[in-house]
Amino acid sequence: MDSGWNLIQGGKFQEAFDMLVTQYEETKRTINLRSAVIAAFLLKNYETALKYSLIVEDLDEYKGDTNFIKAGIACWMMKRYSEAVEYWKLGRAPKLYTSNIVNVPALLFYAGV
After folding, report:
1. Residue 9: is it exposed, middle or buried by C-beta count within 10 angstroms (0-12/13-18/19+)?
2. Residue 45 CB contacts under 8 Å (≥ 6 apart), including other chains
3. Cα–Cα distance between 106 and 21 in angstroms, integer?
4. What are the CB-based long-range contacts (under 8 Å, 24+) for 80-83?
5. How far apart are CA 45 and CA 61, in angstroms?
6. For residue 98, with 0-12 CB atoms within 10 Å meaning exposed, 13-18 middle and 19 or more buried, which class applies?
7. Which residues, other chains included, contact 60 with Cβ-Cβ below 8 Å and sequence gap of 6+?
8. Distance between CA atoms of 86 and 66, rounded to whole angstroms?
9. 30-42 and 46-59 helices, crossing angle to 10°
10. Is there a contact between 75 and 84 (Cβ–Cβ < 8 Å)?
């Protein structure tokens, strides 16, 4: 049986998403939901990507900016620009962990805020 991530790499995004959500429900491992968010983005299902990004943020023991970055991107893709900016601003709050991949101030600059 393929892993969810292997399915994503193979372009089977819906199958991956379904598997990852099921795996999360069985194991309660947030890594599965994190990967499900990626699959949702690849499916262009931005509402679902937003939903699971916020669920992961609530579940995360180690708070960081990554989930807010993803939530903002999902909103931006749905043309909910003000909401995207609000999520990105939440990602600027002092945290212990950052994505170090996407810089929240850079996203705000891009959005023209």
Report:
1. exposed
2. 17
3. 31
4. 81/111
5. 26
6. middle
7. 30, 67
8. 14
9. 160
10. yes
Q: pLDDT digits over 6-50, tens only? A: 999 999 999 999 999 999 999 999 999 999 999 999 999 999 999
DSSP state of 26: H
Mean pLDDT for all residues in the chain: 89
The full 3-state SS of 59-104, as one line of letters, equals HCCCCECHHHHHHHHHHHHCCCHHHHHHHHHHCCCCCCECCCCCCH
- Alpha-carbon distance of 80 to 75, in angstroms, equals 5
Give the pLDDT confidence of 50-78 residue by residue, as tens digits: 999 999 999 987 777 889 999 999 999 99
